[in-house]
Amino acid sequence: AWKGGKAYLNDEQIRVSDVRDVENSFLQLELPYNYQDYRPTIEHALHELYGKVSSIRINGSSAMSLCYVAAGRFEGWMEAYIGKWDFSAGALIVMEAGGQVTDFIGNEHFIDGHHIVATNGYLHQPLLQLVKAALPKL
Known about the structure:
It contains 4 helices and 7 strands. By secondary structure, it is of the alpha/beta class. A hairpin with a 2-residue loop joins strand 1 and strand 2. Helix content is about 30%, strand content about 20%. About 40% of the residues are buried. It is globular and about 40 Å long. The mean pLDDT is about 90. The strands form 2 sheets. A 5-stranded mixed β-sheet has the order 4-3-5-7-6, sandwiched between helices. Strands 1-2 form a two-stranded antiparallel ribbon. It has a single domain, classed as D-Maltodextrin-Binding Protein, domain 2 (3-Layer(aba) Sandwich). This is Inositol-phosphate phosphatase. GO terms for molecular function: inositol monophosphate 1-phosphatase activity. InterPro entries: Inositol_monophosphatase-like.
């Protein structure tokens, strides 16, 4: 993918999913490398999100998770305390596939942020509201 050039996987254009209900969404979370420092916050977030979305997965790779959102395999991804080198390329792929990427507040100028949400676009505002409720301290 490149800015303005759409997103491709094996020479086939990819698009985000068209799921529009949070209850039917598959969400990915990632843990920061120093997750033990934030364990109470992470446990609280998982508790708050569990049951509000169809499924939550943690796969260990922000780049892969973002590509899964771009390819329509998941509806959203979020991670707190992440470096821009870990999400920048994947964020571009999501946006070129029709998705939306912001910080946890909803700012589209997210590149210098450390708390990032990527979605299929349809679920961005509802997932931001869930994030704000689950992670009020960030």
